[in-house]
Sequence to fold (890 residues):
Amino acid sequence: MIRDHIASRRRNLDQSGFANGLSRRRLLQVGAAVGGGLMLSLSLPFPSHRAEAAVADEFAPNAFIRIGSDGRIILIMPYVEMGQGTYTSIPMLIAEELDVNLKQVQLEHAPPNEKLYANPLLGVQATGGSDALRGAWKPLREAGATARIMLVAAAAKRWDVDPKSCRAQDGEVAHVPTGRRLKYGELAAEAAKMPVPAGVTLKAPEDFKLIGTPAKRLDAPAKVNGTAVFGIDVHPPGVKVATLVQSPVFGGRVKNLDDTAAKAVKGVRQIVRLDDAISVVADHMGAAKKGLAALNIEWDDGPHAKLTTADVARELEQATLGSGAVAQNIGDADKALASVTTKIEAIYQAPFLAHATMEPMNCTVHFRKDACEIWIGSQAVARVQAMAAKAAGLPPEKVIVHNHLIGGGFGRRLEADGAVRAVEIAKHVDGPVKVVWTREEDIQHDMYRPYWFDRLSAGLDEQGRPVVWKNRFAGSSVIARWLPPGFKDGLDPDSTEGAIDLVYDLPNFRVEYVRLEPPGIPTAFWRSVGPSHNVFVTESFIDEMAAAAKQDAVAYRRALLDKSPRAKAVLDLAAEKAGWGQALPKGSGRGVSLQFVFGSYLAQVAEVEVSKEGTVRVRRVVCAVDCGTVVNPDTVQAQIQSGIIFGATAALYGEITLKNGRVEQTNFDTYQMLRMNQAPAIEVHIVKSAEPPGGLGESGTSAIVPAIANAIFAATGKRLRKMPVDASLLKQPV
Amino acid sequence: MAFTIKVNGQTHSVDVDGDTPLLWVLRDVLGMTGTKFGCGMALCGACTVHVDGVATRSCITPIDGIGNSAITTIEAIGATGAGARIQKAWLDREVVQCGYCQSGQIMSASALLASNPHPTDADIDDAMSGNICRCGTYVRIREAIKQAAQSAGQGG
Fold:
């Protein structure tokens, strides 16, 4: 996992500032950042505008809280909202310790500032890796507690009483013996002068008022009445709308361009020619798209003109025949394999996948000679600032980034390629320009979930119990590009998560990883990252072992879980709630999966129905989860429902293929999504736990893929070792 | 050429080519950004509006085909009985996640409820399967439509 492998980077962070409240000097820096206009507006219920910081009579004990003398309590969100509920669960953490209720707070996106807003688990200011709540769990509760202590101290000083005789509640400090009360706003100016406490004691779980209680999403009202502002919705005065076409083959260039017809389209203002892309700038997207269709472009396809997916798969397959970096080694796998009763070998493959966020890629840029202003919805706003600054030829502080609600992230918006592209175009445009990608560009110029090739072998003893497990797999390392210090000794903690540290007790276990970057296709994080393929592989493979041992898939797993009681508990719960073992109609089957990734335990049972034609319908999914302390139970439910639909979509349909160097899929007709009429019923059962919170935004996705594959095996006897489901392999002979 | 269209009860005159999709007139010319762009081919439903009460994909609806029809968008759907019930159910059931597709979902669901106050599961599938939600809120959308239908039955 990233967090362990980049601990050194984490240590380099200014933790005193992050975790324990900021010094006065730092506070002034925060104020300056705010006054510099980096804050952005959101629609209701967020503050509509914040032109300048009223630093003088404001209480801002750290980078996450501002309390104005006007009574406004503003929480600054270091993690972005992309549907996962952070804009509710993170405020809950602060509000719990600050002793305010959620109705009293307003939210602001944090500006780019790695020092103040880096996720302590990642070391960078980014929302990904199911890390937001885990990263925020301690520091943001401490931020709230620090502020509360200072407010109480200010009240005690004004009343000239012992702070211990005061209590904070619902945005007020009360003096218990006399019943006197002061609102936080009334104390703001004085609280700002109180010393920052050196250490704070956090509430015991039994004293939680908010954490663990279902809370309504703070972002919901604006999202049901059309007022929520996503990146694509910004409209700075005088903005033009542009769309673009990039070289259909990655690495190709524009050879010739005839834009006569495009220029004649009503509303088209300008054609921008870049080395490897053309953009049409217009009054509105309708004209831009019409102009784009009228372009006559000749491309030089470059070195990848003949590339196919099969080429990539062949290279990866070759890579798994050599040796790789050892990710985990227990016992002696080779020796053990030589003496087993039953040996099982298998090859698994997982395809390239596009993110297909519902909000297509977009970025608005106003480029001036000496400064640049950017409007975007980003999971990594500091990265956007840095990369846009480079593209603009400006120092980062001259690049102002306004972050917005995100219409689907899934890892796509951890990348800044869209911002860089928009800056490249904006450099040629007088005034602000909103660059909106068509769905076709969005799918054909995504940065893709890597293709993976896995070679496994295992051995069972006389009782059918696995005594050895070997896995060597090859694929792209996204971390090596995105966060180079995270790639070390040939290992990438993201790529191996879910392949190592299995919940099962295996005496001989060896996993090797071979990093191999595919030519001619960029890769990126994709919801559930390494586990998105590793859990498919490991949980399918153990199912193969159970089948080879002629044992029940749940019982087989259970026998290996004596050292992992939390895993056993979720497996038992999922099996019980799913009615594991009960008869199903012919052509139907149940499949199970079990995982510990992103700090959470998850078991799923999927029920599928396979038609005579081989089409698969997922009817029902039962999920049991132990994600430690639950902050917002409704978010847990929602995220698992979401992850299951996302993963089921990939399992049933997801595949990006290359032919002649071009991505073959273009829109939702060729890159299909699961729809309402195909969506399974989903049940989520939460195991109560007092452990620290685990991540959940991605867990549902990785767990469902093998659950479906195993259910198909149960229904048909066919083992699918390559995703997505190939109906032709399941078709019954006439 | 100039076209006169009626959106949410207000008349607007816009000077664009006749084949310009209504979506871009709403979003870029009139600045009504509640209606979303998702695919441009009527495959995802993010751009759904009502044209004379009928759920319509605005991304493939040319402006010259609208004539005197009344266009309703997410910004005004709350003023209709079905729309208000759907919006309330959406909040009660905590449907939204990223929220980007939800304008379109709400417009499709409101049109369904207005024409069919008590939809069956099959009716919901028929009306809603043209709307993609990448966050996978389908389970809750179904529950919310059922709740809204029930609240209509109670006179709400």
